[in-house]
Amino acid sequence: MKNFTKYLVVLILCIAGLRLQAQCTLSATSSGYNAAYAQVYVLVDQNGNIVDQNTTGTFNSVVNGVYQIHALNYDPSNAPSPLPSALIGAPLTDVGSVSNGCYNADLLTDFVTQVCSSCQQVYEFCDGQNVVITSSGSSAGYTQLYVLVDAVTDLILATNATGDFTSFVSPGNSYQVYALNYNPSDPPSPLPAVGQSVLTTGSNNSGCYNTDFLTDYACVSILANSTGTDVITACDSYTWIDGNNYTSSNNTATWTLTNAVGCDSVVTLDLTINNSSVGTEIAEACDSYTWIDGNTYTASNNSAMYTFAGGSVSGCDSTVILDLTITTTPPAPEAGMDSTYCSTDNLEDLFAFNSDPSGIMTWYDMDDNFLGTGSSYPPSSNLGSTHYHVTETVNGCEGPISMVIITIEACPEEPICGELFVPNAFTPNSDTNNDSFGISVLDYNCVEDMNLKVFDRWGKVVFSSTDPYERWDGTFKDEELDQAVFHYVLDIKLFFENKPRQVKGNVTLIR
To answer: Rounded distance, CA 421 to CA 467, Å?
Structure first.
C-alpha cells in the first residue's frame, strides 16, 4: 500500500506540477428517517475518521479527498454513546462503542461516497484531434491503466493502457481522465469497468485504491469545429478570401479559418455571379438628338456609352451603346402667294417647289390635319379664307411650314361699269401682248379709289400705285426682275359698290 501512495505523489507532480488544495461543498440527504428521532449526518474521510457532523447534510470548505457521508437516525431518549459530535478526528467505528445496541452497525451500512478534488491538468482538444492523456509517473512492474469518465455522470466510458481516447469523445462534452497504477498481484477490486461509476473502483478492497485514485485526474474538453457558408452575389467577378477571382458561380470552394475557440472553421463559398448587360439604342433624328447621358448630338454617333448602375434585371450594371443617325431640317418649301377668287372663278391648284429632288411635299390644313402629298394641291371652293400649310420631308426629316391663304368671295350679281379683272400672269417682252400688270375695267372712271401693291416672295413691295391706269412692267428700281410668282393686294372702291373691297391673288412674271 505504501508503494501505491508514492506513485500518486509522483503522478501529481508529473501531470500538474503543483497540486492545488480544493475547497468543495459536499451534500447528502436521507428521506428514510423516523420523524420522531434525531437525524445526524456524518462526514468521514478516506481513512475512516470523522471529519464533521451536522443535522443538514451539507458540508462546506471540504479539502481534497474521497469521503463518505453517513446518515444516523436515533432515538434521542436512547442515544448511542459516544455520539459523532464527540468523535471528530476519531474513527467512525467508535460511534456507540460504549453503548449497548446496534447504533454503530446501522450507521455503517447507510452511506454515500463523494469526492472533493480538482483537475491536475486542463486540456482542450478540437474535434478530430487525437485525444491522448498519458502519465510518466508509473512504477516499474506495476500495471498502468487509464480511465475516461463522463464529467457529468461520473460513469466510465472507456479504459486502456495507452491513454488514447480519440474515438470515445465527442465535441461539446467534458471528460476526466484518471491514471491508475497498481500492483497486478494485489489489484483493486473491482477494477474500472465501462458503464460503472468511477467511485466504485476499489470499493471492495481494504486500503486506499479508490481514494488515492480519485484525487488525481486531468480534465478534458472537446471543442467543436465550426462550419459555415459564405453566401455571395456579385456582378461579373468576385475575389474571395482564398485569393482566387471567380468569374462564374461556385458552391464548392472552401477555406479554413480559426474560430473563436481556436478550432477549425471551414467556410464553403456559395457564390452567384450575375453578368452585366450591354445593349444598343438605335436612334434616328433630324438635326440634333439629346440622349440619356444629357448630351446633345448634332452629328451621327455610334460610340457613346451610358451605364445604368444596377440597371439590369439581375441588379448588375446595364450599359447602353448609342447608334445614332443625324439627318439635316430641309428648308421651308417655296409656295405661291395668297390668292382671292370670285366664287364663279376657276380655282388654280396650289403649288410648292422642293429644295431636294427627293423631297416629299405634304399639305395640311390650318389645324395641321393631313390633306395629301405632292407638289400641288387643289384648294377648297368654300366661301371665306382657308389656310394651307405645306412642308418638305427629306430622308425622314420634315422641315418647317410655308403657308398659303386662299380666299373665296361672292361675285357681284350684275357688274356695273364692266367687270373688274386682275390677270394672274404677264410677259414683259415688248410684244404688246400682256406686257404689263394692272387692273382692267370697261370704264376706268368707275374707279372711285384704289391702292395696288405687288410683293415678292419675301414680302417686299416691288410695285405700288393708286392710279387705275398705271401698270407694272416687271421691274424694280429700274432693274428687271427674274421670273417668279408675286403676290398682290388690291384695295379698290367702285362707284357702283356700297363699300370698298380687297382683292388678293398671285401673278406670275414670265420671261
So the answer is: 15
Beta strands at 217-223 and 174-182: parallel, antiparallel or unpaired: antiparallel
Q: Which fold does the domain 425-509 belong to in CATH?
A: Immunoglobulin-like (2.60.40)
Sequence-separated (6 or more) residues with CB below 8 Å from residue 111: 44, 68, 69, 70, 71
pLDDT in tens, 113-145: 888 887 888 999 999 899 999 887 778 889 999
pLDDT band for position 16 (50/70/90)?
A: very low
- Asked if residues 266 and 225 have their Cβ atoms less than 8 Å apart, the reply is yes
Please, is 367 exposed, middle or buried when counting C-beta atoms within 10 Å of its C-beta (0-12, 13-18, 19+)?
exposed
Residues 91-106, buried b or exposed e (16+ Cβ, 10 A)?
ebeebbeebeeebbeb
Q: Which architecture characterizes domain 334-409 according to CATH?
A: Sandwich (2.60)
For residues 359 and 394, the answer to whether their CB atoms sit within 8 Å is: yes
Domain ranges of the chain: 21-116, 121-223, 227-274, 277-327, 334-409, 425-509
425-509 and 334-409 share a CATH fold: yes
Are 41 and 55 in contact by the 8 Å Cβ rule? The answer is yes
Q: What is the mean pLDDT of residues 315-332?
A: 87
Give yes or no for a contact between 441 and 418, defined as CB atoms under 8 angstroms apart: yes
For 409-440, letters b (16+ CB in 10 Å) and e give beeeeeeebeebebeeebbbeeeeeeeebbbe
